[in-house]
């Protein structure tokens, strides 16, 4: 059927087909809605589906295109986004019970940019409560489930974003990343996720978790799709003083350079976190594939991140505690693990918080001088072990030491790059023995997203992991 065919195509294919008049935005939207009808009950990826509004948006965009007006490279493409991006006049829950009926007063900058580019908004997606959780559990709205195996986690906190893109319910989705929350669901669900350089994308009009660690970015099916989407949402924003004024490249136009002549540092940093043999084998295979494409693969030496981890914990706990103080003091309904993690911020001295912020520049210099010495990018795993089940990572239900240890290890290889603010791209690179996806992670220098995309695109051109679809 045509709907099935359209739902399975990539974002770039759909956008280009709409622009050429081969299909309509309405057809693409109906295809996604048909897919949602099948997959939403299995994944619980959506918190709110705006079916009629999306269909009307698609009709309007089709009329605009027929009249010669194309808004941009995403004109007519259906998407949905993590329920932390404000839409003026509409509910925005942040995945919480506290904001179950809260109406946003403004529209976030990134949604304004997607509106201007002609995106159809299907609705808003499930997430860990207030973006505080690496697995995708949510006691208030129901856990999000992995399309490859509904007993397994999606990764979090952008759980619905990863699941909806993987299940081909949407062509792309925005997530956010404070310690890995774009890259973890991208890896666990078998899609592409980019945490760009700190300051590359505005956070204005989005629920904050930690102001100095939060990043906004896209999850898509391919690297090309991701490059197209990032180019739309990136850029300086007067409403977010942390955004960079550096020009935004045409990432998609820079994809085809290949990897010949590049030096890629390869690391399986067991000293940081134990890495399962299956994950290590998948990383080695990815490194070998890039080597066959002409890249030079060399060992990368990772610094000792002990002090960096401690600094990250101090920053996220203090900043979350500051934001949540009014609700915490009012004894608002939090999940136990979210309340516990946030409450800890009230007991950290201000001097420790200031020291943690001060040390960040040192950590960046150390990483660039050590791990990236003489290389263009670093390759390492995103998640260091096979995707676990919802049950064995359910902190609320068990809270035992083994569960807490596993959940803490989730971010062992992603969190450092939030503290460093460096760009990090997750790309599918295989499947574990349970049939769940594995994701590699590429790390670059500040504002080197185009190079990471180029490497990821070359890798996807030589492999087909990203072409596999959950059934």
Gist?
The protein has 471 residues and is α/β, with parallel strands linked by helices.
Number of helices: 15
CATH level-3 fold name: Amidase signature (AS) enzymes
Query: What is the CATH top level name?
Result: Alpha Beta
Classification by helices and strands: alpha/beta
Approximately how much beta-strand content do the residues carry? 5-15%
CATH architecture: Alpha-Beta Complex
- The tally of structural domains comes to 1
Overall pLDDT score: 97
Nearest-angstrom radius of gyration?
A: 21 Å
Protein name: Indoleacetamide hydrolase
Pfam family, one: Amidase
Function: Hydrolyzes indole-3-acetamide (IAM) into indole-3-acetic acid (IAA).
GO molecular function: catalytic activity
Can you describe what's shown?
- This is Indoleacetamide hydrolase.
- Residues 28-452 form the Amidase domain.
- InterPro entries: Amidase, Amidase_CS, Amidase_dom, AS_sf.
- The structure is a single chain.
- This protein is an alpha/beta fold.
- The chain has one domain (2-306, 350-467): Alpha-Beta Complex (Amidase signature (AS) enzymes).
- Helix content is 39%, strand content 13%.
- It is built from 15 helices and eleven strands.
- Helix 10 crosses helix 11 (336-343).
- The radius of gyration is 21 Å and the shape is globular.
- The protein starts with a helix and ends in a 9-residue tail after the last helix.
- The model has no long low-confidence stretch (mean pLDDT 97).
């Amino acid at each position: 059927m045509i709907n099935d065919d359209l739902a399975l195509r990539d974002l770039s294919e759909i956008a280009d087909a709409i622009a050429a008049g081969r299909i309509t935005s309405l057809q693409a939207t109906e295809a996604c809605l048909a897919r949602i009808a099948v997959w939403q009950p299995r994944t619980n990826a959506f918190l709110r589906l705006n079916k009629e509004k999306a269909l009307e948006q698609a009709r309007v965009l089709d009329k605009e295109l027929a009249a010669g007006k194309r808004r941009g490279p995403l004109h007519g493409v259906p998407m949905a986004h993590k329920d932390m991006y404000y839409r003026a006049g509409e509910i925005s829950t942040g995945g919480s019970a506290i904001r179950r009926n809260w109406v946003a007063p403004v529209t976030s900058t990134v949604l304004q940019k997607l509106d201007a580019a002609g995106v159809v908004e299907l609705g808003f997606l499930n997430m860990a409560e207030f973006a505080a959780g690496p697995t995708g559990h949510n006691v208030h709205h129901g856990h999000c489930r992995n399309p490859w195996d509904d007993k397994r986690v999606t990764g979090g906190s952008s759980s619905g974003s990863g699941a909806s893109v993987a299940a081909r319910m949407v062509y792309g989705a925005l997530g956010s990343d404070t310690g890995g929350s774009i890259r973890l669901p991208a890896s666990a669900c078998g899609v592409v996720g980019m945490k760009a350089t700190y300051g590359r994308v505005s956070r204005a009009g989005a629920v904050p978790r930690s102001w100095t660690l939060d990043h906004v970015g896209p999850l898509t099916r391919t690297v090309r799709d991701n490059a197209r989407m990032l180019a739309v949402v990136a850029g300086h924003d007067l409403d977010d003083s942390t955004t960079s004024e550096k020009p935004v490249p045409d990432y998609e136009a820079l994809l085809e350079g290949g990897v010949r002549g590049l030096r890629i540092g390869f690391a399986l940093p067991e000293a940081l976190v134990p890495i399962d043999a299956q994950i290590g084998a998948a990383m080695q295979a990815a490194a070998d594939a890039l080597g066959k494409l002409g890249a030079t693969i060399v060992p990368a030496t990772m610094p000792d991140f002990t002090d960096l981890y401690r600094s990250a914990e101090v920053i996220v706990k203090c900043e979350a505690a500051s934001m949540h103080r009014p609700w915490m003091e009012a004894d608002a309904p939090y999940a136990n693990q979210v309340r516990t993690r946030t409450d800890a911020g009230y007991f950290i001295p201000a001097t420790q918080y200031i020291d943690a912020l001060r040390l960040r520049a040192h950590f960046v210099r150390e990483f660039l001088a050590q791990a990236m010495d003489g290389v263009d990018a670093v390759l390492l795993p995103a998640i260091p072990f096979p995707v676990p089940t919802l049950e064995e990572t359910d902190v609320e239900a068990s809270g035992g030491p083994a569960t807490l240890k596993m959940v803490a290890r989730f971010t062992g290889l992603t969190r450092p790059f939030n503290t460093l603010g460096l760009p990090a791209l997750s790309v599918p690179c295989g499947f574990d023995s349970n049939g769940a996806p594995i994701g590699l992670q590429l790390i670059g220098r500040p504002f080197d997203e185009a190079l990471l995309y180029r490497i990821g695109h070359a890798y996807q051109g030589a492999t087909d992991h990203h072409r596999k679809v959950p059934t």
